[in-house]
Amino acid sequence: MKIGFIGLGNMGAPMARNLLKAGHAVRVFDLDAQAVQALVDAGAQAAGSPKAAATDAECVMTMLPAAAHVRSVLSADDGVLAGIAKGVTIIDSSTIDPASVKAFAELAARHGNSFVDAPVSGGTGGAAAGTLTFMVGGSASAYEEVKPVLAAMGKNIVHCGDTGTGQVAKICNNLVLGITMAGVAEAMSLGEALGIDAKVLGGIINTSTGRCWSSDTYNPMPGVIDSAPSTRGYTGGFGTDLMLKDLGLATDAARFAHQPVYLGALAQQLYQTMSSKGAGRLDFSAVIKLYRDDGRDASNSNGGGA
Amino acid sequence: MKIGFIGLGNMGAPMARNLLKAGHAVRVFDLDAQAVQALVDAGAQAAGSPKAAATDAECVMTMLPAAAHVRSVLSADDGVLAGIAKGVTIIDSSTIDPASVKAFAELAARHGNSFVDAPVSGGTGGAAAGTLTFMVGGSASAYEEVKPVLAAMGKNIVHCGDTGTGQVAKICNNLVLGITMAGVAEAMSLGEALGIDAKVLGGIINTSTGRCWSSDTYNPMPGVIDSAPSTRGYTGGFGTDLMLKDLGLATDAARFAHQPVYLGALAQQLYQTMSSKGAGRLDFSAVIKLYRDDGRDASNSNGGGA
Amino acid sequence: MKIGFIGLGNMGAPMARNLLKAGHAVRVFDLDAQAVQALVDAGAQAAGSPKAAATDAECVMTMLPAAAHVRSVLSADDGVLAGIAKGVTIIDSSTIDPASVKAFAELAARHGNSFVDAPVSGGTGGAAAGTLTFMVGGSASAYEEVKPVLAAMGKNIVHCGDTGTGQVAKICNNLVLGITMAGVAEAMSLGEALGIDAKVLGGIINTSTGRCWSSDTYNPMPGVIDSAPSTRGYTGGFGTDLMLKDLGLATDAARFAHQPVYLGALAQQLYQTMSSKGAGRLDFSAVIKLYRDDGRDASNSNGGGA
Amino acid sequence: MKIGFIGLGNMGAPMARNLLKAGHAVRVFDLDAQAVQALVDAGAQAAGSPKAAATDAECVMTMLPAAAHVRSVLSADDGVLAGIAKGVTIIDSSTIDPASVKAFAELAARHGNSFVDAPVSGGTGGAAAGTLTFMVGGSASAYEEVKPVLAAMGKNIVHCGDTGTGQVAKICNNLVLGITMAGVAEAMSLGEALGIDAKVLGGIINTSTGRCWSSDTYNPMPGVIDSAPSTRGYTGGFGTDLMLKDLGLATDAARFAHQPVYLGALAQQLYQTMSSKGAGRLDFSAVIKLYRDDGRDASNSNGGGA
């Protein structure tokens, strides 16, 4: 299949590689010439603009930082919609707000194209290994159409419902994630202050009603789970600023839906505090530093920027 | 073994029955004569006071609502310490604050007795089935001693560390639980408002990083998990007022430890709001009513008191 | 002076009238023809577009609901910038985010115009009476230039600093306001539950360290302050949805500044809860209903929409 | 009048001095012999026990750290009730929970004595100057009786209602205070981050709807109010740990009344964070350090303990 691919960042680059590996012809565009060259070296064709990437494509994928980029990539003079043939489907794997998805889908529909939201979970590791989860929003037929393309990059391709529900699924999952991680951080820190061994406490929570991914897989207290970022100085993993972005999407979506999110809004402020202390690039489980150390350590580990 | 058992409420009564079933001789005391009679009918002996229950016992168990009751049962003129022989261990399965446990252990030590905290999880169902989890705080030798007794009532007997750490484990687990449940309630309600199917959203969260007991076993949105209280009108299960009690213990313990618990304190206010609306006896997952319905439904289901 | 005035809503209309009363020649534009006609009846000239309103004007004022409207009114084909003469100052009294102000100021500068932010406080009453407070962001010379114009509509014209600081001042003040009102609501409700007379409690707070505008002028408990909206069923005053808009601006600005606003984010959720219950048009002091009544009363008073 | 006075701490000592200055005969007791000697030097008589201080007294005053101390001073074998004559009124100026006040009043009533709660505001400065505010809970006749005694130590003697309402008034006022201070800290810090001059912002808030004691008298941003603790390194003033104690009383009272206090509970966690960083003895307005500095500065100024 001829696929146009726009956005070759930490996630997009390995995803495009997996499309190549699956035998697709991939034409790539990114503002970063080095990122483009690396894909060309792997067998992709370089495109000079989103429009060029979309021309003659049988499918177009975008993987971009925010809704403003998607809008521009779609509708600029040299954008996707200027080049794409009628009837070709656009798959956007960026994490953006559901309202923008609907607006982009309407825009695409006016050009005779389907627009499917397919945000991912699984991180850069999953992108490289081709084991991402895709949360797909779109009609049943659009889902069936994009499924084989996405299968080259992920192992779970879940149909969430109509256009926009892929983003809703991702936002709601990450809302739970942001809250449970901070909640586990509070409880593990309280337990430490009250004198219980962290491994023992982790073991009890993980076999009891407090059980959750944030505790049994990604416990924020160093030493409880060997493979968790907490045990390697909060490096790698899912950055605090990325969690902050997703909680921002969640609280914004809640605002427009007139839906309260008490704990989500408070958790957002906790990650914001970490970010303001220069720890935005640490794994988000570093939020436990707000409870355990005094603030002077918040940016101590590597990864903590300016 | 001769066991004195004090406190025959919803939890204590089935626990004492399981001790009888295991072949122990159980002497029981409760202020409620009917509760005592029911145990006598099952083979127990009635005692006229905690002191009488403790006299000649080889082990004494207490299962009471709060620290004040434990204090009184121990140290009143006709209390346990007035009757118990030196060297006999007292096991307290009440859920109380760790500081009180330490005070009671010192009091018992002055009388030549060990005091072991062994709060439970598993609810009235687990108490009846003999499948409770006991979180045990005490010396390694005290743990070895009480383990066979507790094994008649539970299937997981976990040694948490020194005196008081059983309570710490329970409080910290339930702190996570109270936060994750309210977090899942926010996310499921937000998803509903944004138009995603609840079962689909639950399915995604339960196989992703938002995965937690509050979602995959006890999801607060009706219809997602068939066996959850949410699917039967929030009846049975773990009452809101009990969650409120445990979050109260957690935030109090945090206060004395000078340890912040932001999300825990906020979650406490959410359950408090439910309780103030008359929903204190509904399962704690009914907290989702704060997000989905207007308040008029908070006390609609049975179980909602005055 | 010849003044172009765009935006004749609840605030803009009386402001434009006061400009007429002060002897200015005012050319008005609004999408609502009735609103335009009412001003024409009062002596204004009607303009067919923002461009027409700006043509030949010596000063242009805008008073619009949100940044998107300001952007469109400025830069559309028939917008202000298409008609305004070089060197003429644009005063925007809308309440919008400081980042948009800066973008608009740059846009205006490229056309040779100054753009001054001058959001107001004082409500529709102050707009009618000409007693508004204007918080002005811009250079010292721009401030001196706009001051006489604004003086026809307000009695306090405060220079806050450079472009955008007028919005910052308004957002920060209303952040304090939203928090103190909810805080007073909590305390007055707690006092009521604990048995103290509301007037006595109000009197003590108002002469003590809890003293604040939300208590001594606008107390949310009915009967404490005779002139407050709480004493007339929470009608009139400053609507919950307007407070929600301003807290949204504050938390958004905080997000972009990587600055935590714990209490602001939580207060926002409280007003959001009111809005989700249909009480968005009640005065914002109705937030006390979350604490005093069960939710069934949240939309009882008039003003509470669907 | 012969007055027994128990509790000669930072507040009690200057209060007792003012009773002496007013011509009363004061018999004092404190566990700290130095504190007693200082009062004896000023003209008081030393008593060897609370009982001795109460014997022959026409009025007994207590000023103690917490309810447990009041209970012990009243009911110990050598306590006040063992020495006091029937009909003599006990005035307790400690800040304690209203439920304890009611219990103490019942205890006193059984001995034929009235117990009046009269907590104060005004700090050590007000205690020395004799300008405290007393919030009095008790019958109208008890109020009339204690008023002349209290007038020697304060200038506002306010009758709040029945027994316990003095404490309710104090707790509710300080709940508002704790919230508004943290709210002003958020807003001033946000304003600073967004580039407005702090003095300008303070001036706007103080003449607008955000006006409050925490801003116009005690602004937490250094340099805004010359006489505020923020301008002298957060020394003196009202300590963070004292605010924490009062917010603890407020949230506990709310728990027992089944009354939510969202912002109060969150504010409590903010002050708790300060205390856990070693800043418990700084003025409570130092909470702004959570927003402005990274944590390393929280305990920088003098006053930051352990």
TrEMBL record, chains A, B, C, D:
SUPFAM superfamilies: 6-phosphogluconate dehydrogenase C-terminal domain-like, NAD(P)-binding Rossmann-fold domains. Pathway: Amino-acid degradation; L-valine degradation. Pfam families: NAD_binding_11 (PF14833), NAD_binding_2 (PF03446). Residues 2-161 form the 6-phosphogluconate dehydrogenase NADP-binding domain. The gene is mmsB. It comes from Paraburkholderia ribeironis. Its EC number is 1.1.1.31. The active site is at K170. Residues 164-291 form the 3-hydroxyisobutyrate dehydrogenase-like NAD-binding domain. Keywords: Branched-chain amino acid catabolism, NAD, Oxidoreductase. GO terms for biological process: L-valine catabolic process. It catalyses: 3-hydroxy-2-methylpropanoate + NAD(+) = 2-methyl-3-oxopropanoate + NADH + H(+). GO terms for molecular function: 3-hydroxyisobutyrate dehydrogenase activity; NAD binding; NADP binding. PROSITE patterns: 3_HYDROXYISOBUT_DH. Gene3D superfamilies: N-(1-d-carboxylethyl)-l-norvaline Dehydrogenase, domain 2, NAD(P)-binding Rossmann-like Domain. This is 3-hydroxyisobutyrate dehydrogenase. Belongs to the HIBADH-related family.
